[in-house]
Automatic annotation (TrEMBL):
<dbReference type="InterPro" id="IPR009057">
    <property type="entry name" value="Homeodomain-like_sf"/>
</dbReference>
<dbReference type="GO" id="GO:0000981">
    <property type="term" value="F:DNA-binding transcription factor activity, RNA polymerase II-specific"/>
</dbReference>
<dbReference type="Pfam" id="PF13921">
    <property type="entry name" value="Myb_DNA-bind_6"/>
</dbReference>
<dbReference type="InterPro" id="IPR050560">
    <property type="entry name" value="MYB_TF"/>
</dbReference>
<dbReference type="GO" id="GO:0000278">
    <property type="term" value="P:mitotic cell cycle"/>
</dbReference>
<feature type="domain" description="HTH myb-type">
    <location>
        <begin position="116"/>
        <end position="157"/>
    </location>
</feature>
<dbReference type="Pfam" id="PF00249">
    <property type="entry name" value="Myb_DNA-binding"/>
</dbReference>
<dbReference type="InterPro" id="IPR001005">
    <property type="entry name" value="SANT/Myb"/>
</dbReference>
<feature type="domain" description="Myb-like">
    <location>
        <begin position="60"/>
        <end position="110"/>
    </location>
</feature>
<dbReference type="InterPro" id="IPR017930">
    <property type="entry name" value="Myb_dom"/>
</dbReference>
<dbReference type="GO" id="GO:0005634">
    <property type="term" value="C:nucleus"/>
</dbReference>
<feature type="domain" description="Myb-like">
    <location>
        <begin position="111"/>
        <end position="157"/>
    </location>
</feature>
<dbReference type="GO" id="GO:0045944">
    <property type="term" value="P:positive regulation of transcription by RNA polymerase II"/>
</dbReference>
<dbReference type="GO" id="GO:0000978">
    <property type="term" value="F:RNA polymerase II cis-regulatory region sequence-specific DNA binding"/>
</dbReference>
<feature type="domain" description="Myb-like">
    <location>
        <begin position="5"/>
        <end position="56"/>
    </location>
</feature>
<feature type="domain" description="HTH myb-type">
    <location>
        <begin position="1"/>
        <end position="55"/>
    </location>
</feature>
<feature type="domain" description="HTH myb-type">
    <location>
        <begin position="60"/>
        <end position="114"/>
    </location>
</feature>
């Protein structure tokens, strides 16, 4: 399967997105991103949600940036316990954080499955070799060679 090509959003697409969100807000709470994406040609529901959250939502929703509080971490743990990795649902329980923030915090920091053991010299050598071959594609590096480690841990190593 080929990865989709990223492309910048045009001002016309932003206008279509804003109008679609306004239209959808009259019908649904929370937003139905599949419906919204029907009004923005060649953009998926995920494209629309990410663009809205990163660019347009701040006027409507207060998104917290920066360090996570212990209370936010507890809300995130409870939400993941309840919903698993359904990040849009999880984010509804972690007020002030969006789905991308919740997923990143869980995968890089809070997931109990993360291997936090000290890196061995063998792992260090393998990491150098693999990065030399694959480049700095951290998620792929850890998925293929260091199960349980995070991309962030490999990058920081």
């Amino acid at each position: 399967m080929l990865a989709r090509q990223r492309r910048p959003w045009t001002s016309e697409e932003d206008k279509q997105l804003i109008e679609a969100v306004k239209r959808d807000l009259k019908s649904y709470k929370p937003l139905n991103w599949c419906t919204v994406s029907n009004y923005v040609p060649n953009r998926s529901n995920k494209d629309c949600r990410k663009r809205w959250m990163s660019t347009h939502a701040s006027a409507e929703i207060k998104i917290t940036k920066g360090a996570w509080s212990e209370a936010e971490d507890e809300h995130l743990r409870a939400a993941v316990q309840a919903f698993g990795p359904r990040w849009c649902r999880v984010a509804q329980m972690v007020h002030g954080r969006n789905s991308d923030q919740c997923a990143k915090r869980w995968k890089d920091t809070l997931d109990p499955a993360i291997d936090r053991s000290k890196w061995t010299s063998t792992e260090d050598e393998l990491l150098l070799k693999v990065v030399g071959e694959m480049g700095r594609k951290w998620a792929r590096v850890v998925k293929d060679y260091f199960p349980g480690r995070t991309g962030l841990a490999a990058k920081n190593r």
